[in-house]
Amino acid sequence: MKVALIQTRTPATHAAALAHVKPLVRAAAAGGARLIATPECTNVVQRNRALLLPALRPLDEDEVVLGLRALAAELRVEILIGSALVRREGGGAANRSVLVRADGSVAATYDKIHMFDVDLPTGESARESHAYTPGDRAVLADSAVGCLGLTICYDMRFPHLYRALAKAGAQVMTVPAAFTRPTGEAHWEVLLRARAIETGSFVLAPAQGGFHEDGRGTWGHSLAIAPWGEVIGRLDHDEPGMLFADLDLARVEAARTAIPALVNDRLFAPPVAPASEAAE
Description:
The protein is of the alpha/beta class. The protein has helices at about 15-30, 50-55, 65-75, 160-165, 180-200, 250-260, and strands spanning about 1-5, 35, 80-85, 95-100, 105-110, 115-120, 125, 140-145, 145-150, 170-175, 200-205, 210, 215-220, 225, 230-235, 240-245.
């Protein structure tokens, strides 16, 4: 089963973002992909919240989401919109992954659970929780290429999420991202390969790449990884483009049979902090 990972350099407006991603999706469909996955923030990259937040719309009104749903129906392919930044139904904003069926309907959505609130050694800082409300549930979704475990970017640093998804039936983990350049260079590939190995799953990680209109820099280097941990698709750059990978779900069962870590859990008591030395 062929999949395609789209790497973008998403612009700062919704209209430009749709014009940017549509030709890449068309090319991926022409190449025979049954599932086409796009990165985090597919619908807009704008770090100025005063400009971004008023421009956000509910999922069913977002220009890019509607455009990609129509394109999925036209091309008869599934599209995983890695994430769209949207207005939540109850107010506030969400960083939301959207699986679109080949008829253009929405199969599943997932709101990013783990917020990227960090201060990096380079001086770069981020406070994602200041703009978005985190999700509170893990999500599985059936697709043409197997059972997907939906995650987004910073989630990859929390292995218990992937373990829970795999134990619930996920065969393919999707990890769309807009990774920072310093952390991408240091951690991107090793974390993704670890999540594949730990769970015996395919990992699909389409990424934003390069320097965006709003001044943000993202790492790119989109990856597809097999359940044994080997890279089966790679872009060695941060330019817009795509990669194809073939998924054989028998490899999931083979990896999990060889190393049955998902069924070898044992309960244990949590550690207790050592008592301080008694005062003399």
